[in-house]
C-alpha cells in the first residue's frame, strides 16, 4: 500500500518531515544541526497490525489520502470500518471549526 500512496499523488504538503543522520554517534545532536550530513524524508503513514495513522498538514491532503486508501483497500477486497475510524486534529490558533472527513460518503468521527 505504501508504494501506491505516494507524495506525487498527495502533493508536497502530505506527511511529516523527519531529519535523520546515519553516521556518527547516535546521541550526538550536533550531527543533526549539519545539513550536509542529514537526510530528510516525508512520512505519510504509520502502520501497526491492523491500525494505520495518516499524517497531513491540511484538510484537502487528508481527504485525498482517505480517498486513495479507500480505493486501495477496495481493490484488495478490504473494508474500512467507519464506525471505528477516528480522526485527530491538532488545534491551531485561532481555533477553527473542525473539518469533516468522509470515507465512501460516510462521515468520520473527529
UniProtKB/TrEMBL annotation:
Record's keyword terms, sorted: Nucleotidyltransferase, RNA-directed DNA polymerase, Transferase
InterPro entries in UniProt: RT_dom (IPR000477)
Keyword Nucleotidyltransferase part of the UniProt annotation: yes
Molecular function per GO: RNA-directed DNA polymerase activity
Reverse transcriptase domain sequence ranges: 36-89
Name of the protein this chain belongs to: Putative Reverse transcriptase (RNA-dependent DNA polymerase)-containing protein 2
The organism of origin for this protein: Homarus americanus
